Amino acid sequence: MKIKYTTLIVDDMDESVKFYTEVMGFEIDSQYNLGPAGTITLLKGDGDAMIELIKNPLDETGLFSVGMDVEDINTTVKELKSKGAKITMEPTPITVGTLAFLEDPNGIRIALIQHH
């Protein structure tokens, strides 16, 4: 597994993008308008991991999840379950692949994603 992204829920997308680009030195990788479901901006810096900013009406501001890239999500989830991991969402098809969630002992979400 490798860290792919950190997802942050933001109050103000423009202000957050300005901070991460102008202050922190990230570049905009891509942006998505999901209509009433919100907006997403992916930011890249040095290395492979990205920051994903999401503004939506559902989630509270702050850290949402740490995303991990996996090669075989079903095998990974099975292995993590056998080690006692708390899976909060079983592998589910999404636009770019398959997604699952688990929680660490502190309740922090970890997203597992297998890309197409």
End-to-end Cα distance, whole Å, is 16 Å
Number of helical stretches of at least 4 residues: 2
Uncertain stretches of 5 or more adjacent residues: none
Q: What fraction of residues sit in β-strands?
A: over 45%
Features:
single chain; 116 residues; alpha+beta; eight-stranded mixed β-sheet; 2 helices; 8 strands
Describe the protein in words.
The chain is α+β, with helices and mostly antiparallel strands. Helices cover 18% and strands 50% of the residues. It has two helices and eight strands, in the order E-H-E-E-E-E-H-E-E-E. The chain has helices at residues 13-23, 73-82; strands spanning 2-9, 27-33, 39-44, 50-55, 62-69, 86-94, 97-103, 109-115. It has an eight-stranded mixed β-sheet, with helices on one face. A hairpin with a 5-residue loop joins strand 7 and strand 8. The two termini are 16 Å apart.
Element layout with pairings:
Elements: E1 2-9, H1 13-23, E2 27-33, E3 39-44, E4 50-55, E5 62-69, H2 73-82, E6 86-94, E7 97-103, E8 109-115
Parallel strand pairs: 1-4, 5-8
Antiparallel strand pairs: 1-5, 2-3, 3-4, 6-7, 7-8
Overview in brief:
The protein is of the alpha+beta class. The chain is 18% helix and 50% strand.
